[in-house]
Write a structure and sequence with these properties.
binds heme C; single chain; 46% helix; two-stranded antiparallel ribbon; Cytochrome Bc1 Complex, Chain D, domain 2; mainly alpha; 161 residues
Length: 161
């Protein structure tokens, strides 16, 4: 005879481990907006970013600049959102080095929630662990940019509040 599994105990275990990855639960309004979720952010990072920036954020030879130690990652959140949403091109200083290439934007491929999770993961790993980026901030930056598709330059990023 099989021993019967205690379903409530199992659910409790799953619920607890699940919670570790979901710091902000959906509100009582019944909406499904989860805020941000670093667990899925890590998955998006591997899928979309690691090919150039490296899983360890140290960059792959000849592809992207490093994220580890970058002031663009630790600096103002709206700049980081703009870079990843619309892309960036031209000279950009990261650490002691100047890079002069281009990176495509990922805005059309990620919802506000997904972008928030991705960037919260990036910040928690290489920038500001205590300062996650919310879906609401991503939504505001997306709305302010309107239909923009052009990549940003560093001068434009610095000039845009
Ligand atoms: C095709 C390769 C490629 C992919 C994929 C890519 N990047 Fe980049 N990224 C670059 C390059 C190249 C630059 C520098 C662009 C320049 O010289 O102006 C850059 C610059 C950056 C910067 C600013 C400089 C720095 O190193 O801090 C950030 C932040 C960044 N990328 C984040 C991301 C994130 C997050 C993703 C995934 C959503 C991503 N990138 C995907 C190539 C890539």
């Amino acid at each position: 005879m099989m021993k019967k599994l205690s379903v409530p105990a199992l659910l409790l275990t799953l619920g607890l481990t699940g919670k570790a990855w979901v710091p902000v639960e959906s509100s009582s309004s019944g909406s499904s907006a989860p805020g941000w979720d670093i667990g899925s952010g890590a998955v998006h990072f591997e899928r979309l970013c690691a090919g150039c920036h490296g899983s360890d954020g140290l960059a792959l030879e000849g592809e992207g600049p490093p994220l580890a130690g970058s002031s663009w990652v630790a600096g103002p959140e709206t700049r980081l959102i703009r870079i990843v949403m619309h892309g960036v091109r031209g000279p950009i200083q990261v650490g002691d080095e100047i890079h002069d290439r281009e990176m495509p934007g990922f805005g059309p491929r990620l919802s506000d929630d997904e972008m928030a999770s991705l960037l919260s993961f990036v910040r928690s790993r290489w920038g500001q662990p205590g300062a996650p980026i919310t879906a609401e901030t991503v939504r505001r930056v997306r709305a302010a940019a309107g239909k923009r598709t052009r990549y940003w330059t560093v001068e434009e990023l610095r000039a845009t509040p």
